[in-house]
């Protein structure tokens, strides 16, 4: 990637295709020159079902940008917030018996783990590999301990994969359009790096990030500056609206108007009723606002348990006072039930809650560009279209 040339980005998420062009400059470091979005088509339930339709959308979007900016692109940085992703953590070791740890020892561990994973998961493609943990003689070490003496060295890697057919389909689409995918980056990876960069004064290394949208949610976990786990859920904040509407018999449209105008707290009077205006032409019922609070409280508590405390995949990650960043995309839900959200997701003070805003398109593409150009301290291996050898790129990061 030429640092001084405009860069083309495409993000594919569950709702839309996002096209962007950015460039580096001496003042801001990165500037978004242009962006546009197109509603998602051709992808259903994280699967590509219409190659031709997707190809047409991408072709038209890129052509439109090239015409507007009078530019021609050959390479693309692709950001994925769609498709099924899988995380596998593997650990390799080397008996040193008092000798010095060499680069060759680490190379052998990495190659062995990658080979074993490729044999086991032969229907998946690796998009990221992270150096999760280094340990020499049972002591965790911050940086790669090349040159140190010891008896036993362990090296943990976190692999992130997508289905090989999804990978092939994406590659095939862009090849037919005469574009080269310079890198494929997970949106969760980019978001996590953004969070770390924004919290440098806190020395933030281990944290969870939870995004709750209307009808789906996403959770990821960073440990020692490395993406360690990711999981999606097929429900979101709309489930709260559905439950309240069903129990108190208020139309969802009217319920949303009610929530927009009210803040629900634990000290709501037992006698405070929902006003008649929210029933429109339906029969008025005496519904206590306290009941709405209690339904939301119960549902959010249940959601927090599904996402975190009762999620068996996280049992080795949850530690007391770990930071949990939360983004609620429904502003009305967050504003009205803020107290409940913070109480429920603190999980009896196991987590330190921080409510955040979603990162902007410019922040996303800026971080993506920096990762591709300069690397990330814990990423071991860029996969797509690397010019250097695998080991050369790995050791360049240290």
Write a concise synopsis of the structure shown.
The chain is of the alpha/beta class and 398 residues long.
Low-pLDDT ranges: 382-388
Mean pLDDT over the residues:
90
Structural class computed from helices and strand pairing: alpha/beta
What strand order characterises the main sheet?
3-2-1-6-11
Number of helices: 11
Order of helices and strands: EEEEEHEEHEEEHEHEEEHHHEHHEHH
Distance between the termini: 21 Å
Estimate the helix proportion, in percent: 25-40%
Main sheet properties: 5 strands, mixed
Number of strands: 16
Tell me the strand percentage band.
25-35%
Rounded to an integer in angstroms, the radius of gyration calculated over CA atoms is: 24 Å
Provide key terms for this protein.
single chain, 398 residues, alpha/beta, 5-stranded mixed β-sheet, 16 strands, 35% helix, 29% strand, globular
Description:
There is one protein chain. The protein has 398 residues and is α/β, with parallel strands linked by helices. It has helices spanning 51-69, 103-120, 164-176, 187-198, 238-248, 252-261, 289-309, 331-336, 338-345, 361-374, 390-396; strands at 7-13, 16-23, 31-39, 43-44, 47-48, 75-81, 85-95, 124-136, 139-141, 152-163, 180-186, 207-212, 217-223, 226-233, 322-328, 351-355. The strands form four sheets. It has a five-stranded mixed β-sheet, with helices on both faces. Strand 1 and strand 2 form a beta hairpin. The longest helix is centred in the C-terminal third of the chain and has 21 residues, at 289-309.
């Amino acid at each position: 990637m030429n640092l001084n040339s405009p860069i083309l980005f495409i993000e594919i998420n569950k709702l839309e295709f996002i096209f962007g062009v950015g460039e580096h400059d001496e003042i801001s470091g990165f500037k978004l020159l242009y962006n546009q979005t197109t509603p998602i088509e051709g992808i259903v339930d994280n699967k590509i079902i219409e190659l031709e339709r997707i190809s047409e959308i991408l072709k038209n979007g890129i052509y439109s940008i090239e015409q507007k900016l009078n530019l021609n692109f050959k390479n693309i940085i692709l950001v994925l917030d769609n498709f099924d992703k899988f995380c596998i953590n593997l650990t390799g070791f080397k008996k040193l018996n008092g000798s010095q740890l060499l680069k060759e020892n680490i190379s052998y561990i990495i190659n062995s783990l990658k080979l074993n994973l490729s044999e086991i998961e032969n229907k998946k493609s690796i998009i990221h590999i992270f150096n999760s943990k280094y340990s020499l003689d049972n002591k965790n070490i911050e940086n790669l301990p090349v040159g140190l003496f010891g008896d036993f060295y362990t090296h943990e890697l976190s692999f992130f994969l997508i289905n090989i057919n999804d990978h092939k389909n994406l590659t095939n689409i862009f090849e037919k359009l005469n574009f080269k995918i310079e890198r494929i980056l997970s949106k969760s990876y980019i978001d996590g790096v953004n969070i770390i960069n924004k919290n440098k004064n806190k020395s933030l290394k281990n944290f969870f990030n939870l995004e709750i949208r209307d009808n789906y949610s996403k959770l990821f976990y960073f440990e020692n500056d490395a993406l360690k786990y990711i999981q999606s859920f097929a429900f979101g904040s709309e489930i709260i609206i559905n439950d309240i509407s069903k129990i108190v018999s208020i139309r969802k449209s009217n319920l949303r108007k009610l929530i927009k105008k009210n803040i629900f707290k634990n000290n709501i009077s037992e006698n405070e009723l929902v006003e008649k205006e929210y029933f429109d032409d339906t029969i008025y019922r005496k519904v206590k606002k306290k009941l709405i609070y209690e339904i939301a409280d119960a549902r959010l508590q249940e959601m927090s348990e599904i996402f975190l405390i009762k999620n068996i995949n996280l049992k080795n990650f949850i530690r007391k006072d770990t930071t949990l960043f939360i983004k609620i995309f429904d502003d009305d839900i967050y504003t009205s039930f803020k107290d409940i959200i913070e109480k429920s997701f603190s999980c009896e003070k196991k987590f330190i809650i921080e409510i955040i805003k979603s990162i902007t398109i410019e922040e996303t593409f800026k971080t993506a560009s920096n990762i591709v150009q300069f690397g990330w301290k814990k990423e071991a291996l860029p996969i797509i279209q690397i010019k250097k050898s695998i080991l050369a790129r790995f050791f360049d990061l240290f």
